[in-house]
Amino acid sequence: MLALAGAGLFALFAALGGWQAERRVWKLALIERVQQRLHAAPATLPPRGQWPQANATDHEYLPVQVQGRWLAAKTVLTQATTELGAGWWVLTPLALADGGQVLVNRGFIPDTLRAQWPARDPLAQQGEGAPAQVTGLLRMSEPGGGFLRRNAPAEGRWHSRDVAGIAQAQGLADAAPFFIDAGIPDLRAAAQPAAAGDGPWPRPGLTVVQFHNSHLVYVFTWWGLAAMVLGAAVLVARYELRLRARHHR
Asked: Which residues cross the membrane (predicted)?
């Protein structure tokens, strides 16, 4: 029984290490693809017929450029934490020329401006339906809410950029299942913190392009445990051989 249990643990730990090695290869390939996208020229949005097939692997952080008219009255604020501190993302739907809408994260405002919004919103002076051309990064929806906090559409509280939830709450019948982060972040200045200053608000271009990649640590952990099980099995086997040798003397 002990040998069977040891063999099972060895197989399990070795398999988990192999799985993490495969995940590391996948993650490195994903990072390389995203880096290539970030340096590419902005493309047009995927055709409306392909919106349901949009996914993180093929579209996340894709630079895009769109034209349309702002639906300023349907703007929502979602909680945000950035290098400028705590505050809010300003999400406004953009009605596209060929139909449909796409949510645009126009940028960040500090928490001190929350009570003054939308009076301080530049779109308040432009009026409903103001034309716009937006260049930014295509992002996937963030359903559910934040850490231990769920979105409350009826109360207008949003802890995440939940595209489907916001579209339903704002009556957007033909919204894209993704959103756009306005502005292309300067990767060369990524190590330098942005200055808060006095605006302009909302502040675009604060997208953080970063992937958690600890798979190599997990590989060594699981394979290390497998090696420990194998080493323990060798010690037990040697101990049993010595006992048998003594028994037969």
From this structure: 216-239
- The kind and range of the H/E element at 76 are strand 76-82
For the chain, the domain total comes to 2
> 34 and 124 in one domain?
no
Q: Which stretches in the chain have pLDDT values below 70? A: 1-3, 5-6, 19, 21, 23-36, 146-148, 186-198, 210-216, 218-219, 233, 237, 239, 245, 247-249
Residues ≥6 apart with Cβ < 8 Å to 124: 72, 118
pTM of the entire structure? 0.74
CA atoms within 13 A on the CB side of 240: 8
DSSP state of 189: G
Which runs of consecutive H residues, i.e. helices, occur in 102-146? 122-126
Structural domain including 112 reads 62-189
> Does 133 reside within a domain?
yes
What is d(CA 237, CA 184) in angstroms, rounded to the nearest whole number?
61
Q: How many CA atoms lie within 13 A of 24 on its CB side?
A: 13
Distances (CA, A) of 42 to 25, 60, 183, 230: 27, 13, 11, 53
Q: Could you tell me if residue 183 is inside a domain?
A: yes
What is the model's pLDDT at position 187? 54
